[in-house]
Amino acid sequence: MRPAWRVADVRAAEEALMARLPEGTLMQRAAAGLARRCALLLEQVYGAHVTLLVGAGNNGGDALYAGAILARRGAAVTAVLLDPAKAHEEGLQALRQQGGRTADNPPATIDLLVDGIVGIGAKGGLRDAAAAALHKATDRGRRPTIVAVDVPSGVDVDTGDVPGKAVQADVTVTFGCLKPAHVVGPAAPLAGEVELVDIGLRPWLRADPAVLVPDRADIAEALPKHRPTDEKYTRGVVGVATGSKTYPGAAILSTAGALAGPTGMVRYAGTARQYVLQAHPSVIATDRITDAGRVQAWVIGSGLGTDAAAATALRTVLATSLPVVLDADALNLLVDGAMADLMRGRNAPMVLTPHDREFARLAGEAPGPDRVAAALKLAAHTNAVVLLKGDRTIVATPSGTAYANPTGSPALATGGTGDVLAGLLGSLLAGGLRPEVAAVTAAYLHGLAGREAARHGPVAAPDVAAALRPVLADLASPDAAAATHK
Ligand SMILES: NC(=O)C1=CN([C@@H]2O[C@H](COP(=O)(O)OP(=O)(O)OC[C@H]3O[C@@H](n4cnc5c(N)ncnc54)[C@H](OP(=O)(O)O)[C@@H]3O)[C@@H](O)[C@H]2O)[C@@H](O)CC1
Ligand SMILES: Nc1ncnc2c1ncn2[C@@H]1O[C@H](COP(=O)(O)OP(=O)(O)O)[C@@H](O)[C@H]1O
Ligand SMILES: [K+]
User: Fold this and answer.
1) Which residues line ligand 2 (CB under 6 A)?
2) How do residues 292-330 score in pLDDT, each as one tens digit?
3) Which ligand 2 atom lies nearest to the CA of residue 414?
4) What HAMAP family does the database record attribute to this sequence (predicted)?
5) What separation in Å is there between the alpha carbon of 300 and the centre of ligand 2?
6) Residue 316 marked in a binding site
7) Is the dihedral of CA 36, 40, 46, 51 positive or negative?
8) Domains in the chain, start-ordered, CATH in brackets?
9) pTM for this one?
């Protein structure tokens, strides 16, 4: 897992580390890493045109020192100082010593633009002067490559919110550790590719990380391995109570998701039985949950409806002592609080899988700018693991741990993909994974499947279910456990 820390924790670690080092050491380390990446992005450093947007703090200092290194190697470096009186003095001196210059406006030619406007000291969206300079530097025939220093300026570093104008970077070079804005919320895609430069901070980061990001090896390790002694029941059986006469597609899609998972059998219980059997002959299907036979976990909700029969189905599932995935209409049925006693009485794990509108109905308010905090709050309140869907799906546990999925793809923004996710998640739960591990694994695989499906053209939900197979095959290959997230 790759951890991300909040600003206050980064500041505390920085202070502890700086106390043992000569002044300026950390900035030198940061600037060296930044300059190295900038040089790699330029075809040739000598003669390249580099512009630095330099703000009032140390973020601008990093940019100036990196600019000095590039200028020493022959780049034509121009610094646009957004607040000349507050620009990092020693950094500016270093740049000038290497032949760099300052200008009021971005020059006509820019190969590489370095965003040193603001880093972890940011408050609110980009200020007008910074936004205007950014506009002048980027709104031109050939947009320069943009490297953000530490974070793309204008984002909220702790939440990943983007409250106003912000930089869209191609690459972000960050120092010491990841921050939440690199991995959650609308800020994450603005960071582009994120490179973490080691400045020696890690041993001093003593607080719990704000959020954890799984990589490929984590997922490969979490997946249950088939054993030669296995038979269908030892691999776990998942029960799927989804769909209805009105929405049979949801039943087909959630069972498709479940069939791609690790369990040895999928049981379906509901009024879309005939449709499910037609689509998936290996499913054992009944009309009612009470007739379904033994399972190790239930998935309930997608396309179920919210009528009396749906409420009875939900009560039946909640009354079991089995792990349960609550999706879509099952979440809507929880809103009026009629099931609150049943929820409270449960010892077995529950995973709630809301999208933003379902979250708002359930929590009484939209997730808002801090999606991690919102998901954690609902998880604590319901004593369930919450999987809050989105580009960077969040998984939050009642005990306060949060994960951010890195594999999301906009290709998944199409009807029915959530049903596939719920089925897969149920299978992972029935396969014996802890609920948060099942949720993180399902979101990761689902995102990869969205990407895989998108390689072949426009994506519909059945394509995502089908793409889970090559994705799982790839992960199960012997070298997957050693690989890191690409
Ligand atoms: N931590 C570490 O280990 C290391 C940290 N390092 C580096 O230091 C950086 C943090 O530096 P920092 O503390 O000086 O703050 P920083 O982000 O430059 O911002 C300061 C100024 O920006 C302004 N400003 C605020 N909001 C704004 C907005 N929305 N739009 C425009 N401007 C805005 C505001 O100005 P003011 O209000 O004062 O006029 C404020 O004073 C960090 O990100 C990393 O790059 C590395 O060198 C080494 C190791
Ligand atoms: N822009 C996006 N980028 C990445 N993933 C997305 C995006 N939009 C939606 N998704 C994913 O697609 C799925 C949609 O689920 P959901 O909203 O429940 O759809 P449905 O109810 O139609 O099945 C979720 O897994 C969500 O994380
Ligand atoms: K920046």
Assistant:
1) 328, 355, 389-391, 393, 408-410, 412-413, 415-419, 421, 446
2) 999 999 999 999 999 999 999 999 999 999 999 999 999
3) 22
4) NADHX_dehydratase, NADHX_epimerase
5) 17
6) no
7) negative
8) 2-208 (3.40.50.10260), 216-476 (3.40.1190.20)
9) 0.96
